[in-house]
Amino acid sequence: MSGNSTYQPQSKVLQWFEKRLPIGGLVHSSFVAYPTPRNLNYWWTFGGILSFMLGVQIITGIVLAMHYTPHVDLAFNSVEAIMRDVNFGWLIRYLHANGAAMFFLAVYIHMFRGLYYGSYKEPREVLWILGVIIYLLMMATGFMGYVLVWGQMSFWAATVITNLFSAIPGIGESIVTWLWGGFAVGNPTLNRFYSLHYLLPFAIAGVVVLHVWALHVSGQNNPTGIEPKSDKDTVPFTPYATVKDGFIIACFCIFYAWFVFYIPNFLGHADNYIPANPAVTPAEIVPEWYYLPFYAILRSIPNKLIGVCALFGSIGILAFLPWLDTSRVRSGRYRPLFRQFFWLFVISCVALGWLGTKPPEGIYVILSRVFTFYYFAFFLIVLPLLGIFEKTKPLPNSISESVLGAKA
Amino acid sequence: MTMQRTIIALTLAGSLAAIAAPAGAQEHQVAPPKLSWSFAGPFGKYDEAQLQRGFKIFREVCANCHSMNLLSFRNLADAGGPGFSAAQVAAVAAEYKVKDLDDKGDQVDRAGRPADHFPSPFANELAAKATHGVAPPDMSTLAKARTYSRGFPWFLFDMVTQYQEQGPDYIAALLKGYEAAPKDFKLPSGGNYNTYFPGHVIAMPPPLQNGQVTFDDGSPQTLEQYSKDISAFLMWAAEPSLTARKRIGFQVMLFLIVLAGLMYFTKKKVWSALH
After folding, report:
1. Which end of chain B is more exposed for a tag (fewer CB within 10 A), N or C?
2. B237 within a domain of the structure (yes/no)
3. Do residue A254 and residue A326 come from a single domain?
């Protein structure tokens, strides 16, 4: 998307069109000629997977919306009608429900990859922050989509999450009432969640365009973390990256299809097959697995306001990562100490996810606090200090040297 | 004391989120035995004869108290279901009385038609509650709405072994799980002791006994058999598309594996020039 394209269409018609709207050149420079580092490993294929999943979610979602009824008395049954009476409705719904989980799985791998290889560092700060915004939008969209089912877990998740805002001193209660459109989670809440759940994916798509744009300005990072220096360091996007992404998307689809066709309710909660009932609180209210680490952070802090701040802070802090990490070496490959702290961070996130499913009592609380502390310490203490004290390994002279050895 | 205060504080923090589960909600649940089901695994499908027996139990026993609102009579003839013929479905439907309006707008009870939903045994939830103390749950999605915790690491293995039959396992165990309460157990009046029900106190009295329902296909008329057949029927009611889903799933898997293989070799060929 940067610079002038050398694209010259063959046919006269396309040449005529290109002169008036150079969209062919845009596509050509962005997805054909675009140089990608030749040493990208498979962790770099998750951007393609995520684009694919966004497409799947939007298409299945639009079809579901044709059959869904956003009303407290009808929503649950309309979802069941999709499962029972709409042709292949069960397939579309299971694709959508499990697709959300796949989307989050892919985004987590994508984020951890960025973290490990320092993809957020200069000149990619804006690229990274756009990614954080996409992630935030995804979380809001996923949450509201879960509510639309209007089962017991939907209803109580909506109650729990909207209640978070009541922690804001003074105006909290008013904000919650405003969010609900009433004095409890009810029909106005469901209606606006439906409206926003339909809107936000297109907002995500918009930010994705900016994300890809920013990516194409700065170019991709790569496992060595050093910038390409010559043509020998890069390969054109097509066919090299397209065929690689195509292969990995096919593999990802096998994994995805396993869930959709064989264990479609594995990631869901049984209580969500019980229609929402404001009079009955479920024995346990657990969010979807992809929110569990944040849920554990929230519950690890006894003060409600501080807990909510920690919850939002744990995501917000990601936006400051480019400046919190003071090391001039990008890739974790050449940072032996960073690598250990990184894996400890991954373990902390998984552990927090597990603790999110546990009742907030006894040993679970203590563990949640330990891992919450490390979560924040990683960003606020470890990363700033590592840049000063860490002795990094020598970097290769170029990407092609790292791939082909010194003789190249 | 500090610990206590911490717990209180946490409970408060929890209720911010209304997550404070009612005391004792984390009650120990006894894991039901894993049974073998025709619909388990990648090639699983419903057993027509079993679903027909299950439907007989539903009709003669369960339906006296439980509704199954989301299903219509016509579903009994759907592919992958109990396999009734259209004529059989019409005959079954006609045995029911369905509330409707006549041409003058007066309410009438007419014979059921295949397109009708299964009528509820009670006019509304309040009536059900007034009769039973607790409204018996609707059975349409029951087999998917009931489960038990598998815990770590079993839930991870379940992902690979495709164990998705927690619901029917639980229901079958529950139906056989009625026992005399242990001596030190305080059973509230109107409650029944059940090994597998969370908290052990269930409002439903034992619904099935040996010999209660007559089978025409020579299957044993035992509680053991009944509990399996009705659980299978409820699983079908909750997930009628299961047979089609697994059949299509296998085709999709084959396609994707071939596609991924072709993509792999294409990728290898394209990249080979570079290395």
Report:
1. N
2. yes
3. no
Chain B segment 77-136 residues within 8 A of A by beta carbon are none
Residue pLDDT tens, chain B, 275 long:
344 444 444 443 443 333 333 333 445 689 999 999 999 999 999 999 999 999 999 999 999 999 999 999 999 999 999 999 999 999 999 999 999 999 999 999 999 999 999 999 999 999 999 999 899 999 999 999 999 999 889 999 999 999 999 999 999 999 999 999 999 999 998 899 999 999 999 999 999 999 999 999 999 999 999 999 999 999 999 999 999 999 999 999 999 999 999 999 999 999 998 86
| Same domain, residue pair B110 and B225 | no
Helix (H) or strand (E) run with residue A235 in it: strand A234-236
Q: Is residue A136 one of the residues assigned to a domain?
A: yes
What angle (nearest 5°) sits at the alpha carbon of residue A40, between those of residues A37 and A44?
120
Query: What is the rounded CA–CA span in Å between residue A344 and residue A356?
Result: 18
The torsion region of residue A269 among left (phi > 0), alpha (psi -120 to 50) and beta comes to beta
- pTM, rounded to two decimals: 0.93
Give the chain B residue whose CA is nearest to the CA of A263: B162
B contact test, residue of A86, A95, A102, A247 with most B CBs within 10 A: A247
**Domain tally for chain A?**
2
Is A271 part of the contact surface with chain B (CB cutoff 8 Å)? yes
CATH number at B238 reads 1.10.760.10
Interior angle at CA A323, CA A319 and CA A328, nearest 5: 130
